[in-house]
Q: What sequence folds into this?
């Protein structure tokens, strides 16, 4: 677990930054024009945070940072809870509550899902499937042997 805490701290910061950006976009709203919705003046920093924060999180996940140890994903809840607090600190509208709820859900689900999808867990599941398949093959073989014995007994008793 060489410097795994660095990635967890980076993840926490990125999730917090994402939550701040998303709550800020809820706060500033949308400027409608002929082309559609655009970010109003003063909302550029929020838009940058909202658009830029998920990319490094995706690269970290794609690189397999979480495959060996699910505890490294604890950066998600470590950033999601303060992000939800920041979102609710910016306002208490329905949009802010939605952002806070979304962040808390992300913070809870990512470690939980990663814990049950790590390489070690997959290997245990694979071994369990193989064990069950062996037991089923043995049981089918027992049934076939039992049926063969019955057939032999029937053929012996009908021959005599």
A:
């Amino acid at each position: 677990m060489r410097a795994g805490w660095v990635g967890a701290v980076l993840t926490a910061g990125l999730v917090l930054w994402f939550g701040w950006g998303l709550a800020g976009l809820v706060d500033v709203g949308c400027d409608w024009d002929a082309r559609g919705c655009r970010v109003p003046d003063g909302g550029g920093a929020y838009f940058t945070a909202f658009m830029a924060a998920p990319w490094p999180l995706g690269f970290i996940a794609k690189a397999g940072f979480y495959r060996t140890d699910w505890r490294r994903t604890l950066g998600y809840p470590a950033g999601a809870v303060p992000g939800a607090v920041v979102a609710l600190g910016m306002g208490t509208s329905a949009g802010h509550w939605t952002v806070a709820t979304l962040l808390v859900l992300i913070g809870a689900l990512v470690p939980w899902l990663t814990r049950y999808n790590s390489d070690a867990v997959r290997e245990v599941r694979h071994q369990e499937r193989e064990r069950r398949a062996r037991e089923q093959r043995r049981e089918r073989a027992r049934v076939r042997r039992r049926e063969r014995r019955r057939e032999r007994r029937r053929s012996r008793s009908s021959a005599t």
Remarks:
- The helical segments are 4-28, 44-52, 54-62, 75-90, 94-115, 119-159.
- DSSP finds six helices and two strands in the chain.
